[in-house]
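New to this. Explain the following:
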Amino acid sequence: MSKIRETVEKYALKPLKYQIKGKVTIIDTDNGRFALKEKNRNNNQSIFEYLNSRNFHYYPEIVSTDRDDYEITEYQEMVDMPDDQKMMDMIDLVALLHSKTTYFEEVDIDDYKKLYEDISNNIAYLTSYYNDYISVFETKVFMSPSEYLFARNISAIYSALYFAKQELEKWYEMIQEKRKQRHVVLHNNLDLSHFIRNERSYLVSWDKAKIDLPIFDLYKLYKRHGLDFDFSEILKRYERTYPLLEEERKLLFILIALPDKIEFDGPEYQMCQIISREFDLLFKTEQLISPYYSKERK
């Protein structure tokens, strides 16, 4: 606490009250409220400089410098609003972020090849991993509830892996002649709790921000909130401002179709919850993706 106080007082702020919310310390001072968070190893000062150069100022004003161990920002209070509206407002801001920070970068076929091989190896690994488990479960006279739940729905995992494998080959063929990738600033940590709305909109928690393909923000958001919201509407809303390229959308669908690795080592009730959630997400992903492939067939 003494180090926090020392950092705050360095900027002529007199602490009056401290409140801890997760990794963030909210500090009431004689000059207003501020949020203080310990920095990770990444220095994102260059990211903020680039955002400013692109006229994107939708983050709380930063008081501290890049040399400090803690980041101090002006504290912004969230107004009360439904989560569905909050999500739509956040995706509008993400689309604006990507739109304002887009540039095309020359890439070599080896860059595409590495991504192709990483995904292909992951598909092979997951296929082998789940084959081993289902082989063990099917030898048992009596399965546990979680094992039975998994065995009964294993076809959904195989279907998702088959889809990802087939689409990955099509994607790799599609990008053989492309030598430019569209890159943007990724927030890279999208969560409903990292969006604030009052007189204007803000994204907070930029400590994982980086430059990469725009779909990775959508992918991580889907993995975190895919079961909480209608993602087909979220994707449509995003593409009103920032339409995805054909190869970007195909890669996004490949990534979200891949099942997660389920670790079969928890308490029985918890395992049933984890397995149920994974299959629910697989079924919802199929509902999200199917209409796009129906249009292709037509």
